[in-house]
Design a protein that fits this description.
With 55 residues, the protein is of the alpha+beta class. It has one domain. It is 18% helix and 22% strand. The chain has a two-stranded antiparallel ribbon. Strand 1 and strand 2 form a beta hairpin. The radius of gyration is 10 Å and the shape is globular. The structure holds zinc ion. Zinc ion binds next to loops.
Length: 55
């Protein structure tokens, strides 16, 4: 997985329910001030692919 396109920190895969996955920066939200987040995808692989395409 690519590092965050905005700040260079690693991304982390998040999951909600059985078919909602996305990747967000580890500095996203309350733990930091980065707003990088991928689109929500049905699978982990698609979420990572979406994250890797972010610029
Ligand atoms: Zn970031």
């Amino acid at each position: 997985m690519n590092p965050c396109p905005r700040c260079g920190q690693p991304g982390e895969v998040r999951k909600s329910g059985s078919n909602r996955c996305w990747v967000q920066c580890i500095k996203f939200g309350k733990d930091g001030n980065c707003k990088a987040i991928s689109t929500i995808c049905p699978t982990r692989a698609e979420a990572i692919a979406a994250w890797n395409k972010m610029r």
